[in-house]
Design brief:
The complex is a heterodimer. By secondary structure, chain A is an alpha+beta fold. Chain A has 21 helices and 32 strands. Chain A folds into five domains: about 70 residues, 2-Layer Sandwich (Phenylalanyl-tRNA Synthetase, Chain B, domain 1); about 200 residues, 3-Layer(bba) Sandwich (Phenylalanyl-tRNA Synthetase, Chain B, domain 3), CATH 3.50.40; about 60 residues, Phenylalanyl-tRNA Synthetase, Chain B, domain 1; about 190 residues, Bira Bifunctional Protein, Domain 2 (BirA Bifunctional Protein, domain 2, 2-Layer Sandwich), CATH 3.30.930; about 90 residues, Ferrodoxin-fold anticodon-binding domain (Alpha-Beta Plaits), CATH 3.30.70. In chain A, helix 6 packs antiparallel against helix 9 and helix 7 crosses helix 8. Chain B is α+β, with helices and mostly antiparallel strands. Chain B has twelve helices and nine strands. Chain B has a seven-stranded mixed β-sheet with strand order 1-4-5-9-8-7-6. The longest helix of chain B is centred in the first third of the chain and has 40 residues. The chains are: A alpha+beta, B alpha+beta.
Chain lengths: ~675, ~350
């Protein structure tokens, strides 16, 4: 909000600090000054008045604030209202407040001569960014900038039967405003109406028809206190913000209407030769009185963390215009609607005293070490492992577009946003995969090798909306086994026991069907509970995202993993005796699983074998069989194993393998 | 009968061996002496033709000469081999300016790095790291934080700014919701930080995001004060930026704190001298903070007369931007490896 420095100065006899210095003082004690602008006859401060301080949406308010901080005495202009005894406002206007209004004050001024404003008024308005229109309108604006109370002037002769009704609009009612815009009104819009129709959008903008023109002779001045919520709602609904609506929506002091209307009437009588009718119409059913709050000096010290004398506290509160009794019952003037509890008073004391004057002091608390958060611990742990395995971590949006949802078949589980930022962000992600695939799409031209992962929340609607922490990663290329090795390493490092990879048995209607290449995918299980998925991404998806190479992905339930993970780990002594390694190559039909072959080896000589290591798979396309080559490591913990024992075991393995008529051990 | 002068022969060969410069040369000499048509062969053919008494002496002598020569040959060969090895070793070199093949290395996301640093610092000061749900209800996101419906503060936090979900629920617009969730369950005294994603409806540009990270902090006890807040926050910032940081508190307004302030820090880029980033003010707006409003305690079922403490909220993205001099907030969610591979 703009404030004219010279206008603020006019409230003081003492010279104010220069605009820059004053800006700093205000910033540190009251409100941030965002800019200082040079204008024709001085400086304008753009002050970001805090939203709970509508009393400072005025030059007088800011001056009052400065007088408190600097301890400068405020000077107020002396003026007296002269009323015409013969004409009475009450007899001319009938007022009916139906809703949305705490106070409505009106005054009639007649024999007004509408014309140009004096140049000093125009200057002050222009400095604050308001265009001068005519002397009557300018004075209403001037008083708003001066005291913070928005005013409106109606051409009284245009008001049907002299009736003023404050009510919510009816559906279908319309109004043409002063700036020639037409608005359709409804039951959420508070209006001022005459006997026939709305003549102003209450607290926001006046109507054109009842507006002040050069022919206006009699005016009805309005100085009201509308409900902040009503004005705020209407302003949002109509998408119409005005200097008046901003002030009303933050809540004004109902006791201000009277001062402001008299001030405006005085200026109109002075500069527009108007005669002020006697008295006002004034609807004010519940008068607002000053609040009383008990202040404990000890609480001031405890909350701010400083020693501060009673005298100092007293002085600050008095400078703020508060009355303080000897036992610190503080009476807060009604213009400070923001002060309701003791802590509000402590804030006043703190900021005027200056937060800069509060010395830093470490708290004295009991030495309780913070609890460890296992989920965050395992999250960090997982990141360390994956990054050491060459993965780069990404953070993607939690949102997906409708297209993504359809591509991945997530329609039934995805949560839709009521008011999305754009069509790209219309749904919450039910999986981390779509954005990871899009990351590949984006990076594939620059990077040949891509391995990325993300840990983040995914959102699904089942019976209720749910969110879960997930871990997913993608590798560019035909790298199923590598990915399997990564999962294997990660799970082992996390101390997750008994996990295994199982063939994927799709259930119809599962969204997974469209995402994965079914025959190149595995479910990852622990105790037959599914914890995740590993596999190649389907051709259809890759085509949709224009990815040429293959992509292998894993998608894990991270919450399950971190529950199963364990830091407990026991060292297992290794054998001091040498190992003997024998290689074996087996020809088996293509559909035989490696695991089956390994099981036969294991069962034949399990107690002598430390490790079976597959080191080659050879598949000739036309051949019906594939060749599997293993290193078999023989070793015992208790004693050295003899070559004869190994040979015996090895022969037994061969014999057992060849029991199967279609299996053949290659002899060298 | 041919005359043999064994001594001359020995001397001659030894002389040649001595002069030999390379293994190849030495090999030639060896062949000359011990080869198929070599002198030794010739001599050994002559010896049987000698008279019997001479034969024995010459034979013995010949054996000694052979042995001596082989020894000299071996010694020289060893010498030359060592020399050759040394020479080739000296010739072997590597151009250390060759760009090496790149090993496959992973990279942490900068927000993870910053989060870890933050968490480490606060944990060292006894703060527990806590998380909360990203889908929230209006009670925890607004009402419990003393932001009733139609409150002007909702202009900033709500309506225009909050994402509403079809069928109910919102995406949390700040991590302050976790203050409530934590205090509903945990009795003070307490010290927590809450790093987490927050969501605001906005037009995305270089300095505005719709999906970003916040750090909430909350410390509540019997006598936790503004002075305590200043000490904790200054210590954090100093350790985070690894340099002396000045802070200042400016009055502000949040419905859930009273008093409320903005925390400004001396610009970390120009050290307060004034630059483009701090708009020549020397200060950067860094966090919103304040002393927890009594109504917030009440809403968590606590008696506000028993407890007091501070709460604060940082933008983690902003801290990362200042730390790594990142000028565009959109990079964090971009998944762009040209960006990510720098961390």
């Amino acid at each position: 909000m703009k404030f004219f420095f010279e206008w603020v100065q006019s409230y003081f006899d003492k010279k104010l600090p220069d605009p820059e210095k004053l800006a700093e003082i205000l910033t540190m004690h009251s409100f941030e000054v965002e800019r200082i602008e040079r204008v024709k006859r001085g400086f304008v401060l753009d002050i970001d008045v805090l939203p709970n301080r509508a009393d400072c949406y005025s030059h007088f308010g800011i001056a009052r604030e400065i007088s408190t901080i600097l301890n400068f005495k405020l000077k107020t202009e002396q003026w007296r209202l002269k009323e015409d005894k013969k004409v009475k406002t009450k007899e001319l206007v009938s007022l009916n407040v139906i809703s949305g209004c705490q106070r409505y004050t009106g005054r009639i001024i007649f024999d007004v001569k509408v014309g140009e404003s004096p140049s000093w008024i125009k200057e002050r308005l222009e400095a604050c960014g308001i265009k001068p229109i005519n002397n009557v309108v300018d004075i209403t604006n001037y008083v708003m900038l001066e005291l913070g109370q928005p005013l409106h002037a109606f051409d009284f002769e245009k008001i049907e039967r002299g009736k003023i009704i404050v009510r919510f609009a009816k559906k279908g009612e319309k109004i043409l405003t002063l700036d020639d815009e037409e608005y359709e009104l409804d039951k959420d819009i508070l209006v001022i109406a005459d006997a026939k129709k709305p003549i102003a959008i209450a607290g926001i903008k006046g109507g054109k028809e009842s507006g002040i023109s050069e022919n206006t002779k009699i005016i009805l001045l309005e100085s009201a206190n509308f409900h902040p919520v009503a004005i705020r709602r209407a302003s949002i609904k109509l998408d119409l913000k005005t200097d008046a609506s901003i002030r009303f929506s933050h809540g004004l002091d109902p006791n201000l209407t009277e001062v402001a209307i008299n001030r405006a009437a005085y200026l109109i009588s002075k500069f527009c030769r108007g005669k002020i009718a006697k008295g006002t119409i004034d609807y004010y059913p519940k008068k607002v009185f000053p609040r009383k709050i008990k202040l404990e000096v000890q609480k001031v010290e405890s909350l701010l963390g400083i020693k501060i004398s009673k005298e100092k506290i007293l002085k600050i509160l008095k400078n703020l215009g508060f009355k303080v009794s000897p036992n610190f019952i503080v009476e807060v003037p009604t213009f400070r609607r923001d002060i309701a509890i003791q802590e509000d008073l402590i804030e006043e004391i703190g900021r005027i005293y200056g937060y800069a004057n509060i010395e830093r002091k470490f708290p004295t608390v009991s030495l309780i070490p913070p609890r460890k958060n296992p989920e965050i611990f395992w999250e960090n742990f997982t990141k360390d492992v994956l990054i050491s395995l060459g993965f780069t971590e990404v953070y993607n949006y939690s949102f997906l577009s409708k297209e993504d949802i359809e591509n991945f078949g997530f329609e039934r589980e995805a949560i839709e946003i009521e008011n999305p930022a754009s069509a790209f962000y219309q749904f919450l992600r039910p999986s981390l995969l779509p954005n990871l695939i899009k990351n590949i799409q984006k990076n594939q031209s620059e990077f040949k090798e891509i391995r990325i992962f993300e840990i983040g929340k995914i959102f699904k609607i089942k019976k209720e909306k749910t969110e879960k922490k997930a871990l997913a990663g993608v590798i560019l290329g035909d790298k199923f086994l590598e990915a399997k090795g990564i999962i294997d390493t990660l799970f082992k490092k996390m101390g997750i026991p008994n996990f295994y990879f199982d063939f994927y048995q799709p259930v119809p209607q599962e969204s997974k069907i469209s995402i994965w290449k079914i025959k190149k995918s595995a479910e990852i299980k622990i105790n037959s509970e599914n914890v995740g998925f590993l596999g190649e991404i389907s051709r259809e998806i890759l085509e949709k995202y224009r990815i040429k190479d293959k992509v292998v992905a894993f998608d894990l339930d991270f919450e399950k993993l971190s529950r199963l993970a364990s830091e407990e780990h026991e060292y297992e002594p290794f054998s001091p005796y040498p190992a003997i390694v024998r290689d074996i190559s087996v020809l088996v039909p293509k559909n035989v699983l490696v695991e089956e072959v390994m099981n036969v080896i294991e069962e034949s000589a399990g107690n002598l074998i430390r490790d079976i290591d597959l080191f080659d798979i050879y598949e000739e396309i036309e051949e019906e069989r594939k060749s599997l080559a293993f290193h078999i490591v023989f070793q015992l913990k208790e004693k050295a194993i003899s070559p004869e024992e190994v040979e015996e075991a090895f022969q037994k393995i061969i014999k057992n393998l060849e029991k199967n008529p279609n299996w053949e051990v290659r002899k060298k | 009968m041919k005359k043999i002068n064994l001594l001359n022969f020995e001397r001659e060969i030894k002389e040649k061996i001595k002069k030999a410069q390379s293994l190849k040369e030495l090999d030639e000499i060896f062949k000359e002496a011990f080869g198929k048509d070599g002198k030794i062969k010739k001599i050994s053919k002559i010896i049987p033709t000698l008279p019997k008494e001479k034969r024995k002496i010459v034979g013995q002598q010949f054996g000694k000469v052979k042995e001596a020569l082989i020894q000299v040959f071996n010694a020289k060969a060893e010498e030359l081999r060592a020399k050759a090895e040394k020479e080739t070793e000296e010739k072997e070199w590597i151009d250390v300016t060759i760009p090496p093949p790149k090993p496959l290395v992973g990279h942490y996301h900068p927000l993870t790095l910053v989060r870890r640093k933050i968490e480490e610092i606060f944990q060292s000061m006894g703060f527990e790291v806590v998380e909360g749900p990203e889908i929230e209800d209006e009670w925890h996101n607004f009402d419990a934080l003393n932001i009733p419906p139609d409150h002007p503060a909702r202009d900033v936090l709500s309506l225009g700014k909050t994402f509403y979900l079809k069928g109910g629920g919102i995406m949390r617009s700040h991590t302050s919701s976790v203050q409530i969730r934590y205090m509903e369950k945990t009795h003070p005294p307490l010290r927590i930080i809450v790093p987490g994603r927050v969501f605001r409806l906005d037009a995305i540009d270089a300095s505005h995001e719709i999906d970003f990270w916040q750090l909430e902090g909350l410390m509540v006890g019997k006598d936790i004060s503004v002075a305590n807040f200043k000490a904790i926050i200054e210590e954090f910032l100093k350790r985070f930026f690894e340099k002396e940081i000045k802070i200042r508190l400016r009055p502000s307004y949040f419905p859930f704190t009273e008093p409320s302030f903005e925390v400004d820090i001396s610009c970390v880029l120009c050290n307060g001298k004034g630059c483009q980033v701090c708009k020549n003010s020397g200060w950067l707006e860094c966090a919103g903070a304040g002393m927890v409003h009594p109504q917030v305690y009440k809403n968590c079922g606590l008696d506000p007369r028993d407890w007091q403490g501070f709460a604060f909220g940082f933008g983690i993205n902003r801290l990362a931007m200042l730390k790594y001099k990142i000028l565009d907030i959109r990079l964090f969610n971009s998944g762009d490896l040209r960006f990510l591979s720098q961390f």
